[in-house]
Amino acid sequence: MQELKDRIMRDGRCLEGGILKVDNFINHQMDPMLMKACAIEFVRLFANEKFNKIVTIEASGIAPAILVGSLLNLPVVFAKKKVPSTMDNYLMTEVFSFTKRRSYEIVVDKRFLGPNDRVLFIDDFLANGNAAKGVLDLVNKSGASLAGMGFIIEKAFQQGGEELRRQGIHVESLAIVESLDNCEIKLR
Ligand code: 5GP
């Protein structure tokens, strides 16, 4: 998606350890018009898939997910990173965070993910694929099925995309970072 690629080249910053900082339009300050354009592109890319729900993980996935949900008139469920005291019947799995370098648990209430659901997963980044695998685990545990996974930015120099596609999952990324070597952003 050219608009997104131009924005990454203009406003993205490279951090040590292969991290792309995009906190001025995705991860902290958000650009709603760019997020809406991303959502329109996700809708186009997954037009041939059937699903009844959008799933994401808090926090940065919520904005693009909700915009996709609003375009398709579908509910959006976000996996939570803390179990609310009011939640008593939930599915849980563990995710290793690439940027925070520690594991955390994600949960989803069983009322919002079950055998009648076929879901599209939307998230901001695909790196090693741990967040995506965690959500896939929740989807499998719930008896739901997966229609596809859409990411705003995929880092091709990490293994997540390859692993998910090898499993036969329909993966779409709106911008693909080939390399961040020497702190130079190279896009596909
Ligand atoms: P994964 O689980 O695929 O290894 O990493 C995905 C998650 O880690 C994303 O949801 C995102 O929050 C975070 N992440 C991974 N790589 C980057 C990066 O280069 N920049 C930013 N801002 N977040 C990243």
UniProtKB/TrEMBL annotation:
Domain Phosphoribosyltransferase residue range list: 41-155
Binding site for 5-phospho-alpha-D-ribose 1-diphosphate: A127, N128, G129, N130, A131
Keyword vocabulary terms for this entry: Cytoplasm, Glycosyltransferase, Purine salvage, Transferase
Pathway: Purine metabolism; XMP biosynthesis via salvage pathway; XMP from xanthine: step 1/1
GO MF annotation terms: xanthine phosphoribosyltransferase activity
Keyword Cytoplasm: yes
UniProt xrefs under InterPro entries: PRTase-like, PRTase_dom, Pur/Pyrimidine_PRTase, Xanthine_PRibTrfase
Main subcellular location of this protein, as a coarse class: cytoplasm
Catalytic activity as recorded in UniProt: XMP + diphosphate = xanthine + 5-phospho-alpha-D-ribose 1-diphosphate
SUPFAM superfamilies registered for this protein in UniProt: PRTase-like (SSF53271)
Annotated localization: Cytoplasm
Gene3D superfamilies: 3.40.50.2020
Family designation: Belongs to the purine/pyrimidine phosphoribosyltransferase family. Xpt subfamily.
PANTHER family: HYPOXANTHINE/GUANINE PHOSPHORIBOSYLTRANSFERASE, XANTHINE PHOSPHORIBOSYLTRANSFERASE
Function according to Swiss-Prot or TrEMBL: Converts the preformed base xanthine, a product of nucleic acid breakdown, to xanthosine 5'-monophosphate (XMP), so it can be reused for RNA or DNA synthesis.
Complex formation: Homodimer.
Name of the molecule in the record: Xanthine phosphoribosyltransferase
Organism in which the protein naturally occurs: Alloprevotella rava F0323
Underlying gene: xpt
